[in-house]
Amino acid sequence: MLYSGTYERSLDAKKRVAVPSDWVSGEGEVFFVIPHPREGYLMVMPHREFDRWEQKIQESGATPGEKRQAIRDFYGTARTVTADKQGRILLPDAHCTAAALKSEVVFVGSKSRFEIWAKDRFESALPANTEVFKRVADMIGL
Known about the structure:
Strand content: 25-35%
CATH class: Alpha Beta
Largest sheet: 6 strands, antiparallel
């Protein structure tokens, strides 16, 4: 699955939100949701992407103690969510609080995973993110 595009959605009163239809293969699809440690959004990934993170942590230049802590924090904050027959996922309250999600959210594709942002945070971050993209695009000749 390749997650691409940007989609605006609304959280309902129970904190359910519809995943873009081309990102869900059907009812019962499981995703892992983790608050980003610095940037204030939720990272959402399928099982195959989630499984890669321990290896990435182990291959990092961190000390053994830092690796243990990073693995503990990453997996300790991860929660599974399952798509219902309407393609909705129920976001945990603590994760919504961590990402300041209220009623309006933005789904952003990020290749092998996707992000869920509070709409106001996404709009605030957009100018700086666009400038970074322009610089990188210039560097790679895009």
